[in-house]
Write a structure and sequence with these properties.
Length: 412
Amino acid sequence: MGSAGPVRAAIVGAGPAGAALAYLLARRGVEIVLLERHTDFAREFRGEGLMPSGVDAIRQMGLGAALDALPQSHVLRFQIYQDRECVARFDFRPDDGSPQGPVFVSQPALLEMLVAESGKFPSFRLERGFTVRDVLRENGRACGVRGDSGGSPAEVRADFVIATDGRASAVRKHSSLDRMERVEPFDVVWFKVPIPEALDGMQQGRVYLGSGHFCLMFQAPDGELQIAWIIEKGSFGELRRQGVEGWLDQLADLVSPDLGAHLRANRARIHHPFLLDVVCDHLDEWSEPGLLLLGDACHPMSPVGAQGINIALRDALVAANHLCGPLANGAGPEALDAAARAVRDERLPEVKTIQRLQGAAPPRFLFQKTPASRFLVRRVLPFLARTGLFRIPFGIGFRRFALGTTRVELRV
């Protein structure tokens, strides 16, 4: 495509925030184009855990039935292991007032559902295979994006630009808002193996705590066993030099004997392994004239507490509340920019709070080489687990991760 006439809004990035916001704007009749770098969603995603807050956001959008029809798996309980021995179990009990556990939903299927629902409205257009190279500006104001589409130069002009293109946001890099600094002391090796027969359909996950490592596993929506191995930042280079067999043996030595034997027996069936370089940070400013950043583009979340997709969906609801009216009613630049600032003002407090909670969670302490952190990991956590006292702080923390720290209500 070349340069086309301007649309009311261009959203860059068809992740959860972008696809959800596009749907909400399109159903209000806002002329919207959603630009996605990839040609499809058939790829591996790390953030497929929907907490109750994320499920609630989708249901508020009126898409609860469509969500229920997607491939998904549920976790009703977690077993916690210390030094290869099960020391505690935690059950999610919605019937006693506790929040429901996470639901793991195929993100490719979720995104395809969102764009399909958006496509029911004539004001929506999806452009796949569009790679943004720069932000167009006139008189100091963003007025669209320039990039490549189908191997040819392309431009999309818009009255307002919304960037939801993730932690490596191309739009952010070409704005005055590009600043991300705080990295976490750990990275995540993310991969799948066939699920052991003992765990298949059991709706339970396992957490392994150890010296210098943390491992989380659960049944993925496709029926495989999803494993997140949290390791010290910068240590993956040595693991990679060992090859898959080498680092798999190292992980197998850290988990319980039954799982260790399963990993070794299925070493040839590991697939989609990749390293997630963990960053947890936020911008204090999310907008400049004609442009708003949302989701990971302005606040990449740590994987602790499975917050990324849930916070992104809540961003979309709040953005729709503030932007739908001005965009649908033909408001001018000043009103659009004021709406963008209001989105930041409403969402930033929760983002800061959740990121503080993520920073205080046990995985961060596993990699701090201080006497206090070693005492916490080797003495305090096992004691809390064995006595059952860990349910109190875990329950308080989980409730905030599960439900959010503020009420988000869709009003449009």
